[in-house]
Amino acid sequence: xKTIKKLFDNNRLWADSMTRMNKDxxxxxxxxxxxxxxxxxxxxxxxxxxxxxxxxxxxxxxxxNVANLVIHTxxxxxxxxxxxxxxxxVEHVIVCGHYGCGGIKAAVEDQRHGLxxxxxxxxxxxxxxxxxxxxxxxxxxxxxxxxxELNIREQVLNIANTTTVQDAWRRGQGIxxxxxxxxxxxxxxxxxxxxISRKNRFAEKSLFIT
Length: 210
Ligand code: CO
Known about the structure:
Elements: H1 2-21, H2 25-31, E1 37-42, H3 49-53, E2 60-65, H4 75-87, E3 92-99, H5 102-108, H6 116-129, H7 131-134, H8 140-160, H9 163-171, E4 176-183, E5 188-191
Parallel strand pairs: 1-2, 1-3, 3-4
Antiparallel strand pairs: 4-5
Helix pairs in contact: 5-6
Bound molecules: cobalt (II) ion.
């Protein structure tokens, strides 16, 4: 119970520090949110969206699941995307995966993990699509890192192909979709340079990771 109480103590300290910084901070936030970014990241506790990019509450809309997947029929993720694009009018959608992802690793292991194996099957599909390339990697670690990147690229394409983003581009709404990878070993983000926006959306077949 002590550990749970600690969370409430921490919360009080945090709320106090925020209001010391700006006495109307919560009053202003309660009125509205106008984030410019939607972050779709892994649920991993080591990859907290706001902290990594140094943004305050109200500045980034967040959806997280295991292995940062955007599945064509996942009503949860698709609803977040629709709300972010159509109501909040975010300008950037960021898919952020991370090296050392347990979900990516579990997806290629020949071992049962239970229900989650069904979810991770999507990552395994990415693996199979790029099997020839992945088998050329020098060891398991570099294979997993590469699969991490390929998985992110796949999710960027999935977002670009949703009705929400396609309709937004057709209306002329400027939204860019980006693929980033976070390294839990040094805390740094890397842009995979697989961004798709309204302008280059027809060139997506030529997408590659540098
Ligand atoms: Co992960």
